[in-house]
Write a structure and sequence with these properties.
Layout (H helix, E strand, L loop, with lengths): L1 E2 L6 E8 L7 H19 L6 E5 L3 E6 L5 H15 L5 E8 L2 E4 L6 E2 H12 L5 E4 L3 H19 L3 H12 L5 H8 L3 H15 L6
Parallel strand pairs: 5-8
Antiparallel strand pairs: 1-6, 2-4, 2-5, 3-4, 6-7
Helix pairs in contact: 1-2, 2-5, 4-7, 5-7, 6-7
Amino acid sequence: MTKAVDSSLIAVLTGDIVKSRQISHEGYDDLLYSLNNVLSYVSEQHANNAFQLMRGDSFQLIIHDPIHAFKYALLIRLALKERDDHFDCRVSIGLSDNDVIRHQIGNSTGDAFTLSGMGLDELKSRCLQVTSLDSDFNQRIDLLVDYADHQLSQFTQRQAAIVQLKLRQPELIQQQIADLLSAQRVSISRSLKTARSVSYTHLRA
């Protein structure tokens, strides 16, 4: 069944697991558990957000609070890297306001879905992509995305845990994070300094 949507901007995140065939069955169960948890968390951040797992190693989300779409993409990758620093995924974000959302996400259509899917196909040397119909916006944000992707790809499990916790609960201070993760405050400080340069990218196409 098709439902009408208004003209407000939406984001579509399409992703797949990096080197999924090289992950053991036990490891893959751990990965899917973390992936399902973080996708559920993102869906809960807005009443109309939704996700679908496809073919076991890919996923798609519809985001109705698109200003947070980049943060959500980071959270997905961080959740996997926190589980195992060898786990990762590619995520492509498509932005548009001309989309038809159906009961099955995979059957939905529009520019955001097309841009997101095409962006994922084009990802070769990095794991993050943001694309809209505005070429000027795409050029402006591409360097930021490239930098964030490079930094995130080098995160350890501990760094991923620290940054993910801060993104989910920005009100936490460093000592609270250190207590929650049983970590030294100095390591929290170093990780958060990197996080600030990676995570606060807002998408306004």
